[in-house]
Amino acid sequence: MIGSLFYLTASRPDIMFSVFLCARFQADPKESHLTAVKRIFRYLLGTQSLGIWYPRHSTSFEILEFSDSDFAGCKADRKSTSGTCQFIGQSLVSWSSRK
Question: CB count, 10 Å around CB of 52?
Fold first, then answer.
């Protein structure tokens, strides 16, 4: 199930954090992790119309970048999390998230 969700993260960046969080516990999964994975699938079923969309004609080529970080915000291991996303006009072209 996690492998299928990894495949979907290419076009659905909104599930990326949740999928990678569930993937960390594959060595010793618990019932709560299976429940979380099933919840992600239910979310995907309800949001099938969402995804990355690139318009054919864009009037703006303005480059925007957003970033956020959280110092020692993970409750499990107290590690920091940071992320960025880059837009050209209204189209997302790149994103990253690191722990």
Answer: 13
